[in-house]
Design a protein that fits this description.
The chain has helices spanning 6-11, 20-23, 62-75, 91-103, 115-126, 141-148, 162-179, 200-205, 232-235, 264-271, 275-278, 285-300, 302-321, 342-355, 385-403, 406-413, and strands spanning 32-33, 39-42, 45-49, 108-112, 132-136, 154-157, 183-188, 213-217, 244-248, 258-262, 334-339, 358-359, 361-363, 372-377. It is α/β, with parallel strands linked by helices and 422 residues long. Strands 4-10-9-8-7-5-6 form a seven-stranded mixed beta sheet, sandwiched between helices. A four-stranded mixed beta sheet has the order 1-2-3-12. Strands 11-14-13 form a three-stranded antiparallel beta sheet. It binds pyridoxal-5'-phosphate.
């Protein structure tokens, strides 16, 4: 007898879903209310918000709000109807593509409705079963899912580890010589959890020895790194050696959508082969027009990036001076590594939110090794020195409580079972 497909789902909610009854509404799916800003409302109380990726503070910028509103009034939410290829193509989509390409120093660009699906399709379109993919083991889920579609061989290398990259490039080279295919190397420009830049300079240098093409997901680098804000490639002086550059609008651009940029020949190919765009309705006009405005501000107001970095430096230096381990971040992403169990981490987050009015993201096992608590903060241009100072004071106090066993005691007293074995 065939069993009911839903039987498994009823029993097993998945690695995160199993926490839903205890975590939903607070630790996961929290509702941040009020205007998008450095301070928002959580459970009816003002909190300092270190959890939204609005790096340049554009989300609520008056000119951005005006552009979005005017685009909504002029075009509505539906415009244009249909996929770009069929009936959803406009001059404004093309204009945004031209401006993005120029900004990231590539010949051509193509818009994507979402970064996630876009990346899946980019990988799918770039390789055939004879090609080999080499990618970082810590790559974002959209890269992993793109690689899942690949019918040929793939190799992961240890996170940002040059030796491991080279070893896997050697393997890939050997295999590609047998299959007659090529090699696609994929990394992130900035790893969004721990904040390290991908080692683009070193990867590019390996092009001297190995024949591969480089695809970079620069979601956190675009707008935040490099002299002009063109991202991790510009920061490391190798932007022109990135063969296919990708970024989302979900972070510095404070919008929905994404783009891919490369030589014209490659973009022309992707336009006709990116399944996530060919078989999906075009990016709406509100996002297209809104992104033109955001890009204009991003290009013409370097003071936004300067302010962002002033805040990043104040927060990261303040944490380092107080002896916190912030790992080897060299970007705006600010992790703080502490030690403790999952229940302890939950108590710590509770305390931060309830007693110190600080809202930040927490990453725990199984995303990182057991016993480590990663608190991740995203400073933005709209944070203030007061936000930073209050946060640093709070961190000193929570560390003391963590070390003197307060959170462990609270966790033990709690009636709800939050043991990680469940
Ligand atoms: C590294 C990285 N790549 C891709 C994406 C997906 O982009 P989008 O939100 O536009 O789907 C994200 C998250 O936004 C990301 O952090």
């Amino acid at each position: 007898m065939v069993k009911d497909l839903f039987e498994r789902i009823q029993k097993n909610k998945g690695p995160l879903g199993k926490w839903a009854s205890q975590a939903e509404g607070y630790y996961v799916f929290p509702k941040l209310e009020g205007e998008l800003a450095n301070r928002m409302q959580f459970h009816g109380k003002e909190i300092i918000n270190w959890s939204i990726n609005d790096y340049l503070g554009l989300a609520n910028h008056p000119e951005v709000r005006k552009a979005d509103t005017e685009a909504a009034a002029q075009y509505g939410a539906a415009y244009p109807m249909g996929a770009r290829m069929m009936s959803g193509h406009t001059a404004l989509h093309e204009q945004l593509e031209r401006e993005l390409a120029e900004f990231v120093m590539k010949e051509s660009a193509y818009l994507l409705n979402f970064g996630y699906q876009g990346m899946v399709s980019i990988i799918d379109a770039l390789v055939t079963k004879n090609d080999i993919i080499v990618y970082d083991v810590d790559a974002h889920a959209c890269i992993i899912d793109g690689v899942r579609l690949h019918m040929g061989k793939r190799f992961t290398y240890r996170h940002n580890d040059i030796e491991s990259m080279e070893k896997n490039l050697q393997r890939a080279t050997k295999m590609a010589e047998e299959t007659g295919g090529g090699i696609l190397f994929i990394t992130e420009g900035v790893f969004g959890m721990r904040g390290q830049q991908g080692k683009l300079r070193e990867i590019v240098a390996m092009k001297q020895k190995y024949n591969f093409r480089l695809l970079v997901d620069d979601a956190h680098g675009f707008g935040t790194l490099g002299k002009t804000g063109a991202g991790a490639g510009e920061e490391q002086g190798v932007q022109e050696d990135i063969d296919v550059y990708f970024s989302t609008f979900a972070k510095s651009m404070a919008n929905i959508g994404a783009f891919v940029a490369a030589d014209k020949e490659i973009i022309d190919y992707l336009k006709y082969n990116l399944r996530s765009q060919m078989f999906a309705k075009a990016l709406p006009m509100i996002q297209t027009v809104g992104s033109l405005k955001r890009l204009e501000l991003l290009r013409n107001h370097p003071e936004l990036k300067d302010k962002l970095w002033e805040n990043v430096n104040a927060l990261q230096n303040g944490l380092r001076e107080r002896g916190f381990n912030i790992g080897d971040t060299n970007t705006c992403v600010t992790p703080v590594y502490l030690e403790g169990s999952v229940p302890t981490a939950m108590m710590l987050i509770n305390d931060l939110r309830e007693n110190y009015n600080i809202f930040l993201a927490i990453v725990i096992y199984p995303v990182i090794p057991k016993g480590i608590i990663l608190l991740r903060m995203i400073p933005t241009a709209s944070h203030t020195m007061k936000d930073i100072e209050e946060t640093l004071v709070a961190f000193e106090q929570i560390r003391e409580k963590l070390e003197n066993g307060t959170y462990e005691k609270w966790a033990a007293e709690r009636t709800v079972d939050v043991s990680e074995e469940r």
